[in-house]
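Hi R.,

Here's the chain you asked about this morning:
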Amino acid sequence: MMSDLNKLTIAEARDALKKGDVTSVELTEACIGAIDAAGALNAFVHKTPEIALERAKAADARLKGGEEAPAMCGIPVGIKDLFCTQGVESQAASGILEGFKPEYESTVSQNLIDAGAVMLGKLNMDEFAMGSSNETSVYGNAVNPWKVDDRQLTPGGSSGGSASAVAADLCLAATGTDTGGSIRQPAALTGITGIKPTYGRCSRWGIIAFASSLDQAGPMTKNVRDAAIMLEAMCSHDPKDSTSADIPVPNFEAMLTGDIKGKVIGIPKEYRMDGMPEEVEKLWADGTAMLKDAGAKIIDITLPHTKYALPAYYVIAPAEASSNLARYDGVRYGHRASLSKGEGINDMYEKTRAEGFGHEVQRRVMVGTYVLSAGFYDAYYNRARRVRALIKRDFDEAFDQGVDAILTPATPGPAFGLGEMSEADPVEMYLQDVFTVTVNLAGLPGISVPAGLDKQGLPLGLQLIGRPWEEGDLLNVAYALEGAAGFVSKPEKWW
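And here is the predicted structure, written out as tokens:
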């Protein structure tokens, strides 16, 4: 048992800690051992064992003290490299932030510290969260622990390191961020659970920004119960983030009854894509049948503006990125290019950005700058904003019909091999997010639940989309789906 402590869920570890059957130090040491042995996955990019053990000791003291400790107290977790963590490298997997150690802590990671969680280190990701395969990282690719042949598979992106680490039991859970599917797609490709809460539920303060109107942090966990426990700890109202909602955070775990009788589940016809793999289609049909068997009412719905979601997203997200990433100029922090004699400040900006940003980031900054430029602003950016409003309205109308949650596939297919898409048109990669971006554009909560394996034996996920601020209700529908799907598969250890 002792050696397998890293395989526990948050709920199991919490109960064992409270009973005194295990200490946080033992849990943490089991995870540190698993991390050290998993170099082949390249999931952890900045390890912090000293900080981890110090926090584990403090958590053990807190658990022994008389007061009731929070549910996350003593739980070892990984933090995506996008979250600023005081005194620890926070690079957003980019060369431009090399050596950057913030003097402050992001609100989400601070909330986890306050709850007594233990940080094991920082996790790999796509550079500035731009990518769907973890192949744009300055640290190199993160690798999916699932393997069916001699290929290395993608863990998805941008939260690829987080997904890989949770699926391989290197930590009990991890933080991720989701701008267009970056929690839900990697969760689906690695057989774990990932939830993106309603926009404004989790503070964005101290998270390195990609697209400010779309980014949201969320937990990546081994099951739905754990997602509920960790989400509650991560969320809060934060005066430091003007988009943070001042509404109470409920006890999400208490809402997991598994009873969904009378709930109305919408099935959007627009998500039936040409060329969709049979297995994805079948999984979706099976998931629908499971929810029906659990007592939910299934109705067909229409979300007519879905087909415009990807183009709108890939105008809005790069536009916001080009503005957010303008601060990386080599003046105040991070990488600075060396200059030749006679070169001035403009040369320094140009050189620094050329050296510090990878190709995908450069591509998106250029696209963003283009769509915001004087002659194109109305043609692209404003039009995309109007489309976004229509997409949100589609969802509002579905919810007004009494729909409680919407069931869709999470990804177009299972994990693909690393490098297989490198020669492809970038748009092919962007199509990975076809089922997830609408949720960000509309600011809604969405969760990916592992629901089956494809014929090769790779995990596939289903996505549930909920009403704004109703994460508890969404988690409960996900909990019923998880129970019915009975997904318990784990990758076989090869690393």
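One quick note: The longest strand covers residues 446-453.

Cheers,
M.
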